[in-house]
Amino acid sequence: MSDEMQQDFDLPMEEHQLSPFDDKQPNEISELSKQGYQYLKENMILEAKDAFKKILAIEENNNYALVGLGDSERKQNKFNEAIHYYELCLSYHPSNNYALFGLADCYKALNQYHKAIQIWEQYLIHDDRNITVLTRVADAYRKIRDFKKSKQLYLKVLDMEENNAYALIGLGHLHYDFKEYRDALYYWTKMLEQNESAVDIRVLTSIGNCHRKLKTFDKGVYYFDRALQMDPNNFYALFGLADCYRGMNQQYRSVEYWNRILEMDPNNKVILTRAGDAYRNTGDYKTAAEYYNKAMDIDFDMYAALGLALICKGEGKYQEAVDRLSALIRDDPRNYRPYIDLADCYLKMNQRTQAVDALRSFQKLGIRSQAINDMLDRITMNRPIA
Question: 145 with 113: CB under 8 angstroms?
């Protein structure tokens, strides 16, 4: 079961500050521009569009109007429509930076990061010290998993502006994505130190997740607790606390938080299975089976099915456990975990040869598993099985 519950967040970038008019424009166009951009600020999209279209009726292909229409569509998440207006503007005004920004942001929103990067880098040729653009390009490189270029740009921003929030957040995500949790912790902690009085809850849960990955669970609890004080129903804080207590082998406490998530989301198959695991590890097989079966009623779940097999094993029903585990292996032969428990069941039934055969059948797949190798070595060398 994946325990990747890290939210990927970016603080909202400041909107580009388009001057809605200049002194050289005809008075009517100037007034309509001011109106249109004021409407945009107030999120009155229809009124803004109307003002910009009136400008186009006066002056076809006016750059302010075309960018304004692009911004209007982008604010409504109509990115393809926005792209049309930005590209139309650029066809008449190739150096319009606001159309470039808007176009790149649209491609980013559409997950077309390579296109977004091309546009932003086109701008950086002329102005390579624009922090807003540098952080956007760094974000995009992070999304396409180009660690080196992303980090290089984030650090360039920090050289220009120490403790820039966007760069610190981005560096935290970048290192977390590449499983460099200590480095991620460094940057997110630095972010927290700059904003202790007005901390973002996502920074707290991100720091907590680093401790979760580093298995410093007691430290993770501290940050998840702080987050929960800010928002008692925050999913990431509840999940983090449950998982930290699981890691500390305090299953009775993890159950509390799994159940709090289930109160809000009773059909969450992953959480039902996690709660089942917690009950099973406390020896409450009856309640554990109820949770696993609820998960299975929603849809087949490998880990819920595994949990039910382990209940059989825990109750000494070894043959039933063998049957269940063998079925799981047939469905998913590349998952090493059922082989371990299958072999253990055979050993408990004094069927040593079958245990060895089960483990070797996994090795024959050509997949390396240290857990499989270690167990096989212990069996063949007659050492006790943990």
Answer: no
Q: Which one, of 154, 182, 184, lies nearest residue 167 by Cα?
A: 154
Say if residue 107 is exposed, middle or buried (CB neighbours under 10 Å; 0-12, 13-18, 19+).
buried
Q: Which residue is associated with the tokens 């580009």?
A: 16
Which tokens is 133 given?
């653009």
pLDDT tens string 106-136? 999 999 999 999 999 888 887 889 999 999 9
Which pair of tokens denotes residue 30? Answer: 């100037």
Taking Cα atoms as reference points, which of 136, 60, 58 lies closest to residue 97?
A: 136
The Cα 83–Cα 303 span in angstroms is 44
Nearest one of 182, 184, 183, 189 to 204, comparing CA atoms? 189
What single letter denotes the amino acid at residue 327?
A
Judged by DSSP in three states, 162 sits in: coil
User: In terms of pTM, does the model score above 0.85?
Assistant: no
What is the spatial distance between Cα 214 and Cα 228, in angstroms, rounded to a whole number? Answer: 21
Please give the DSSP secondary-structure letter assigned to residue 161. S
Whether pLDDT at 327 is above 50: yes
Q: CA nearest 49: which of 74, 79, 19, 30?
A: 74
- φ, ψ (nearest 5 deg) of residue 11: -65, 145
Q: Which tokens is 77 given?
A: 């998440």
Judge contact between 191 and 185, C-beta under 8 A: no
Task: Say how far residue 104 (Cα) sits from the centre of its chain.
Answer: 22
pLDDT per residue as tens digits for the range 296-306:
999 999 999 99
Which amino acid type is present at position 71? Answer: D
Query: What is the token pair recorded at 282?
Result: 């406390």
